[in-house]
Amino acid sequence: MLLVDLHVHTTVSFDGRSSKEALAKAAAKRGLDAVVITDHDAATLDAPQRCEGVWLLPGCEISTDAGHILGLFYNKKPDIASLRKHGPAPVADALAALRECGAVTVLAHPFESDDAMPDVPVDCIESENSRVYIRNSRGNAQARDLAAAMGLPETGGSDAHSDKEVGNAYTIIDASDCSPDAMREALLEGRCTPVAVRNTPRRMKGFSQLRGALRSHKIKRVLVSLAYVGYCFVKDTFAH
Questions:
Q1: What CATH number belongs to 2-200?
Q2: pLDDT per position as a tens digit, 144-167
Q3: pTM for this one?
Q4: SS3 state of residue 202
Q5: Which three-class secondary structure state does DSSP give residue 224?
Q6: Which ranges in the chain are annotated with CATH 3.20.20.140?
Q7: In 3-state terms, what secondary structure has residue 87?
């Protein structure tokens, strides 16, 4: 049984705050066997890498017109730039491209918004996400219900944007090793169990939004993000 965080971001993501090396070090400290690098609209890794005693596995998170889709364990990089040439990728095109590249498709945090109406033919549903509660406290429960209704395997991931968040949720995978082929087979056969460890503090999302704002060089966006960070600290302090 392997412990794998299937949803983490590096500084390649516009709002990512940690290098892949820092993420790997955190994963090792938390007893994980592997993490999947799923940067926003970017296929960061060409192939699996061993770092700090942990496997870093190839993945991506594509923004589509039907929400965010994770592509896990691809064997060649998808052409995400072409998919998003005119904005969010058409979901059917994104799914086709990911499958052509050998990726397992996962509907990420499908109920991040309470009024979401997901109806996407993916391979798996992310039903444990450590950040989703910030916008919708029932989001993970709704995702579990969706997976049951669709008869699909469930996955878990921290959605980490910094090393401090790695392993807040992960997936137990019944696979022989951490190779993409073994992982892909296990997920498609449903030999996986999502695990929730803890909710990520709201301030971590505030910091990642601030990171994106600073990269935009837009003063108004930076000021709004600073205010949001303050709001998050208040919520973390007084929320029960």
A1: 3.20.20.140
A2: 999 999 999 999 999 999 999 999
A3: 0.94
A4: helix
A5: helix
A6: 2-200
A7: coil
